[in-house]
């Protein structure tokens, strides 16, 4: 017993020496500056409940590239547009890897899919891009139009009853049902109870996954705690595979359908099955992971964008009215807005961009790991560093955005700023950016064409940015008044 205790104490002692030495040693004369790290936890205590706000404030003291210690993890925080371009465009091969924290490992399927890094990533990304280009544009637009029509019809019950509309549930249902149709050619009924069924189940699962990987946990970053945190995560083993199993069941069903009927492919899953064209079990896992990645990314970020846009339009009734007047001038007597109308609605397009800018809905993107030592603009970045892009600081930089704290859609009327990167850049940029922007445009434009929206008490809604992979507001409801 004593020998085991002595061994544990020795392990802790060695860890403390190694951890503290790494934090306090100077690599070169070109080291990045940053706040003083504490033993073991590094700078985790500096981040607070809203790390995106904290990291924006740290720019004022340490500049547009600085270092933090997330526990034992040396982290480089960047908000300089030139350095971001240098990293993502000229050093892509050095930044292909994602950090494999216990949380990420627990929620991912090893090296499969496109969100994490692996030797299979290039092929998976190439396959996904190829099949997305094969989807007929007219069929894609019709699919989104059908979802919009179902959505508008579903609003009538709220309009007739006077019941307030729960925005988060409605936005999630719309984006999720659209992605279901796109990926599986499967319709989610708008008659389904909003608090039960597939939408409620998947929304709850999404919330769990994003809370696990998006907030940051001490056990992900302190080396000596990682084995214990991994053991702790095992209690959720029954919950994590829900999404993967959900997609895998549809994969098996579609494989059998294609084999027996040999019918023409009409959804992302069918096209991926035909493109991979193999019985290899690893490829099957890639297909399932790719579909799940698309389902997760295509549901949560667009739905949070819808929430924030609706909240800002409720709080700025004058801007909402200007958007409505612009849309009405364009559509005339038509009862719906089409994607072809988008070039003719520059003010509304600017509103959507301003929402993404001011709230920086994806504040840091997904971190990356440097796989070699880099000298960048005179700064030394050691191999193994975690790199995060501080999109919030970039979006609130006075050099690019005058009065950045003001909600002002006019700033985008004459074009986008060079610092506006809503879908990132480089080879790992957002693969579904066109689909996402189309979903957002059609939902909001048709909502505003049909209804004036307001808060329940006609008072401004609270703006509280809750931190995660995606920044979300507090849940809220709105009242619909028919135009």
TrEMBL record:
Subcellular localization: Membrane
Keyword Transferase set for record: no
GO cellular component: membrane
Names of the cofactor(s): heme
Highest taxon, organism lineage: Eukaryota
Principal localisation: membrane
Binding-site residues for heme, renumbered to this chain: 430
Family annotation (SUPFAM superfamilies): Cytochrome P450
GO function terms (MF aspect): heme binding; iron ion binding; oxidoreductase activity, acting on paired donors, with incorporation or reduction of molecular oxygen, reduced flavin or flavoprotein as one donor, and incorporation of one atom of oxygen
Bilayer topology annotation: Single-pass membrane protein
Residues annotated as signal peptide: 1-19
Any one Pfam family match given in the protein's UniProt record, by short name: p450
Keywords linked to the UniProt accession: Heme, Iron, Membrane, Metal-binding, Monooxygenase, Oxidoreductase, Signal, Transmembrane, Transmembrane helix
Family of this protein: Belongs to the cytochrome P450 family.
PANTHER family associated with the record: CYTOCHROME P450 307A1-RELATED, HEME-BINDING MONOOXYGENASE FAMILY
Protein name, entry field: Cytochrome P450 family protein
Taxonomy of the source species: Eukaryota, Amoebozoa, Evosea, Eumycetozoa, Dictyostelia
